Each structure stands twice: as structure tokens, then as C-alpha cells.
Amino acid sequence: MKRNKLVLLLTLFTLFSVVGLQNAQAKTITKDAETLYGKEATFQYNYDLPETKTSGDRELYLQWDQSELLKKPSAFTIQLDQENLKTIPLDASNTKKEVTVKLPKSSQKKGGHTVKILFSGVLKEGVCVDQNTSANWFTILPTSKLKVEGAVENNQATFSNFSAQFSNGKTDVVISDDASEDTVNAATIMTSKLQRASEHPNRIQLVQEKDWKKQGDHVIAFTEPKTTYNKDMKAFVPKDQSKALIQANLKNVKGKTVLAISTNKEGSLAKSMMLFTEPQLFNQLSGTELSMDQLPEITESDSADVKFKNIPLASQTLSNLAEQSAFTVYIPKKIDQEKDIQLQLKLKKSALLDVKKTELIVTINGTPFAVKLNDIQSTALTTKTIAIDPKQIDVNQPLNIQLKLNGAQSLDPCKTTNHNNWLYISNDSQFSFPQLESTETEVVKLNDFPTLFNQSDIPTIVQVPKIDQQQLIQIVDLYRASYTGYGQPKFTLAINNKVDESDDKANRILLGDLDRNPFLQKDALLKAGFIPENAEILASIDGASKNKKAIDLQILSTNKNLKSGELYKFIQQMPQVKNNATVMVKSNNEQIFSNEQQVRDDVKDDNGVKNSNQISNTALILTFVGLILLIIVIVYFITARRKKK
């Protein structure tokens, strides 16, 4: 009897344990009811597995509601990673609106996975019936759950999605009070990356530990072998020193999502940021832990041609089922921004596509370009070329491309073959960028920023006098404004007050107070046509001539309380300065001035001297010719008179 009771207790304990484990593993696939409308619609849920699992639950429980007007053959299909698992019919007779589907073993493989629910609704059988009405709906309820052991919820940060989560939330990037130059540089690269991706960049801040107010939802911390944090930050960083060259962990600490990045070798953090800024590397990351003893090598390409297949991008087929496609192209390092970019599209169409009623719209960084399809063939690829003015599309950022096919879909419900109206875009299509023959110029100008720094063959050193909160704001604003279509600039940070003007092996960007630069003192500003007392931020550029490779840029301020984004907006004005301006000032009344007029006047003066010299020379020649002609006439008359006598 006692033995039977013991067996019973053990059995109940095991059952409850299993149930508890299963409940702990269940992930809600939607927080709110998700309603799909129309003849065809799709719901998608993503999850990530840090490592492959060989055991445990793997199932999807779905509960739904539906329109009472749905008739056969209405249905929905459950898909995992584009593999159809089960199709459930829908009609008004449905009483049990729930289903449990066993997932295949592939659902437990390491990496990202996608669950899709594809709804197809029919309100009335027959031909020529418009099914796209508000009465045609299917709702996925928030009680629906996914059970896969080890799965990480799609709203939980992983390396696959942390960038979007951190940039859209309130994020504190925290460094120790005695952080090294390399640590500050790494933290600045990360902060500027997140700010660029955010609609609210001021929510993302780089701070020293002493200034940290613990208000962010997310925290990013950097640790080198000699880094020391105080009590508050110790809970957010690894207790043990990193044993790998680069170690990164995502975890939840005290209600905050924390990304802790550490190294076992000083001076390695900034270089390791390539893992988070280079798309070909970042897109390979997954899970919540990363450990590397060696960084991958990336070969920078200066090729003038960028093929779609090398982005990499598969060939695209646009139709009424997939009307548009989006992707990003990173610009080669050295391009001539004065010449057009050529986009060569290799296209083929279906025999049914009416080219007179359809068009391809290529949108590049928000600027649309229409492509006529009247000569596209259905049997062979046809090349269409678009000339793109770099000034129209802002090449100081990656090219965000959208391809959209207009006119492929018919609103006539009797036409059921719209999906056969397709346009094929080969991945042999390519961008051809005009190459810059030489980066050497007679005069370097403010509107050459940031292009010349990113195209230069020598490194760039950013020099700051010290590290405090004001200086961190300025450094982040500079990095954010310096980002171009060919990626993150390769800047090195130097914390000191010395500027070696004779060193021609590195470009220099000087940040700090106005009194740091002896060339921009009161007398120099007066001579350049500025009122020194009203100057709040000043930029001056010099160098990069035929006899000097290095460029010197000074961005200095009299305002010791600049807010995040203020210097960024000022620097953003520099590429817009016209002509040969080398100095730009923001006054304390928010006005922007440059020495553009002075440079223009100097050019006019030079031209005036040349013109006056040309006029003098011409007059002298004409006078001389006139005298010769006069002498000839006089001699002629004298000779004629002698002959008459």
C-alpha cells in the first residue's frame, strides 16, 4: 500500500513537473489580437535558438476567431521556414476554433526561424466575386502559443534584433570614469550607430559612470583588462575577466536589457565594432552570446561596379502578389560625386504583362525614378539604364533601394491570373559608380566633408582635450555626422592637448574650445569677416594640397553646454556650403555664416587683375598696329605726289 502511494506521488510529481516545464517554455506569439483581412493575408512570428536542441517540446497551439460569413474553400495554412505544415479549413460551421500542430525537428536547429499563418478567405463561391471586403476577416488570439525548448521570444533581445530594440528604446552606453581612448572610441562608434537608426536619437546617450542616471531601458557596457567600475555598474558587467579577444553577452539585469562587451587585450574594442557595424558580419550574428579569439578580415572594394548578386541579392520577381522589394547598397569608397551614377537593370517580363499599363518605379533614398517597360521582352533579358545625379539622392548614406511594379494588379474580380503578370529583375543588374581619379585638390573646402576623410588613404585622428560629458556629446555628434554611403569612418581617438602640425601621416579633426586653435583667434576671425564675440561654433579646414596629404579640420565652440544633436546639425551644414568656403561660423542667434563671399571676392579680384592686364596688352598691340598703318599711309601719299611731279 505504501509502495503504491509512493509510486502515485512520484507519478503526480513528474506530471506536474512536465506541465510546469512546458508552461515555462510556452511563448505567446502575439500580445494583442491580430486580425487578417481580405482574400489573402499573412501573419508572421520570429523566434531564435542560440543552440541546436535534440529533445523537448516543439509545437504550435493556435486559437482564433473568424467571420461568420466565411465559406468553403476558406482556410489557413501554418508554415515553418517556408515549409507547409498543416491547412485548416474555415467555414461558419466551425465550433472548435483551436488547433495544436506538432513542429518538425528543423524547428530546433540553431538560428532564426519564422512561423507564418497564411489566411485565404472566401465569402461567396463563384466567378467574378470581390472577396476583398471588411467582412472577410480572421483573427489570431493572444492565447496562441509556441513551445520550442530554448526558443528566445522575438521581443527578447538577441544579436539578430538588438540593434532595432536598442535604437528604438532609451539606451545608456556607459563607460568607466577612467576609460581608455580605445574604449571611448568603441563606445562612440556603437552610440552613433544606434543614433543613426533611431527616430529619437537623443534617447541614446554615451555617459561616464559618474554621470549615469540609470534611466535607460537598455544598457551597453565596455570592459578592458584594466577597466574599473564602481558598485552601481558592477552588476551589469561580467565578474570574470574575458578569456577571449572579444566576448559579448545579452542578458536581463535588474529589469534592463544589457549588452556587455569585453576583451582580454587592450586596444581591441574599437576594431571589434566591425562585428556590429559591417552588414556582412552583423547579419551573421544570432543568439545572446558571442566569443571570438580572432576578428574576421574584410577586404574593402573600390570597384566601380556593384552587382546585385554581390550585395548579395537574389533575382527578384515582381507581380501583384509581390509588388515591391527593398534592399540596401553600400557605395564604393572612392566615387566622383560630380558625375552620374548608372543603374543598369536587366529585366524580363511575362507574356501576359501589359507594358503599356505598367511601370517600374525605382526609389533611391526617397527619390523616385520611373522606368518605361515598353521595349522589355519576354524571351530574353533587356537592359534598362538609369542615370542618377548623386546630388539628388544624398550619397553620404547607404543607398536604400525600393523596386515597385505599378499596374500589374487588376481590380476586375473576374481576372484571376494577376499573379502571371510578372517582371523579372536579374541579379546580374548592377550599379556603376564613377571613380574618383585623384583625391588631391588645389584647395580643400568645407563642402568636401565628410567625403575626403573617408576617401583618404591615410588615417584620421580625432583629438580632444579631455573626456567629460560635454566632450562625449561632441564626439558622438561628429561620428554620427561623418557616416557616409560607404560605411563607418575609420577614426582613431586621441585624448590630449597637443597638435603636431608637421605630421603629414594622418588627417586631424580637432574638437574642443575655440581657444585651442591659434589660427582662429580674434584677429583671424575679424580678417575673415566674422564678429568673434558672436561666434558659438566654428569650423575651419586646411590642407590636402599637392604638397600636403593630410587634412586639418577644426570644429570648435565657445558654448560649453552644447546639447546632444546641436553639433551634429552644425556639421550637417558643412557639405551644403557652396563654392570654396573654408571657414563656417554659427552665431549665438542661430545664424550660419561662411567666408564664401570673401573667397568669391578674392577670385573676382584675381580675375579683375587678369582682365585689366589683358586689356592693357591688347590696347598696346592695337596702338602699335595703328602706328604702322599710319606710317604706311603717309609713305604712300608722299610717293604718289612725287610721281605726279
From TrEMBL:
Its main location: membrane. Pfam families: BcsB. One of its GO terms (biological process) is UDP-alpha-D-glucose metabolic process. Coiled coil: none annotated. Residues 1-26 form the signal peptide. Keywords: Cell membrane, Membrane, Signal, Transmembrane, Transmembrane helix. This is Cellulose synthase regulator protein. It comes from Kurthia zopfii. The chain crosses the membrane at residues 619-639.
